[in-house]
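User: Hello! My lab partner asked me to get a predicted holo structure for this protein. The small molecule is zinc ion, SMILES included with the sequence. Please write out the structure tokens.
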Amino acid sequence: MKKYGEDGRLEAIYCNMCGKKMIVKEGILREGAARFDYAWDYFSEKDGEVHHFDLCEECYDSVLAEFAIPADVEEQLELL
Ligand SMILES: [Zn+2]
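Assistant: Hello! Below are the structure tokens for the protein in complex with zinc ion.
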């Protein structure tokens, strides 16, 4: 979950799973976190809903550890 200040600057990001407040300095996230923005479509039960949430790196790892089939991971060719 992202919180923005009145000036539109990022103030805080909370992990939706454990509630941890992640480190944000000068509007920039300073630790690993995964942001999810997913628009469900016509073929789902949630047609028209857009879901947003953030996970800290620790929770992300524990979610992936539950997968029966591991996520595909590849090296980025260019660091952004
Ligand atoms: Zn977490």
